Here is the input.
Amino acid sequence: MNDEKLKRILDELDRLFPDARCELNYSNPLELLIAVMLSAQTTDASVNKLTETLFQKYRSVEDYASAPLSQLEQDLKRIGLYRNKAKNVKAMAQMLIDEFNGEVPANHDALQTLPGVGRKTANVVISEGFGYPAIAVDTHVERIAKRLGLAFKKDSVLTVEKKLMKKIPKERWIKTHHQLIFFGRYHCKAINPQCQDCRLIDICREPKRKHYLS
Ligand code: SF4
Here is the structure.
C-alpha cells in the first residue's frame, strides 16, 4: 500500500461518508458502554430500539448491579445472546462500583478488565466516549481493510488494528474508523458489495469485483 493508494481510500471515504458517526444512541459513557456491549452480533438499530426503554428504566450503575439477573434478562430479551449480555452487564456494573467508584474508566486497559468488555469495545468507548484516538476493528473494518489491501487476508484482528494505526494518520483514527464502518455497512457489504459503483475497484483485492472489471 503506497501513499497514493492510501490517499485515494481516505479521500473516497471523505467523499462518500463525510459525516460518518457512531449510530448507537447514548447520553453518557455508561450508556455508551452498555450499548456497545449489547451490540455484539446485533444491529445498532435493534440496540437503539431496546435502549430507548432500557435507559429510562436503568439510570445508574447501581440500577444494573442491583437488578435481579432474571429481570435484566427479561429486559434484554429482544436482542441476541441476551442471557450472556445480561450476566455481563450486571457483573460489569458491580465491578464499576467495587473498583472504579461507579464511573466508567477513561482508560483502555482498565476497561478491558470489566466483564464482557474486550479490546474492540474498549476502543469504541475510549474514542467515542472520551475522544482518545483509537481504531476499533469490528467485522466491517476488518473486511474493508482486507479488501482494500490495508491488511492481509490472513491477518488477525489485532494485526489489522495495528496496521491501520500505522498507516492512517492518528488525527484521522476516530473519523476513519466510523467511515470504514459506514463503507462496510452501506457500500462494500459482506454479501453484495456495490462494486459496479465503486471508485476503488482498481485497488481492491476482493475476487467478486472481477465481474465488474472490463
Ligand atoms: Fe468493496 Fe467491491 Fe469496492 Fe472492492 S470493488 S471495495 S469489494 S465495493
In short: The radius of gyration is 19 Å.
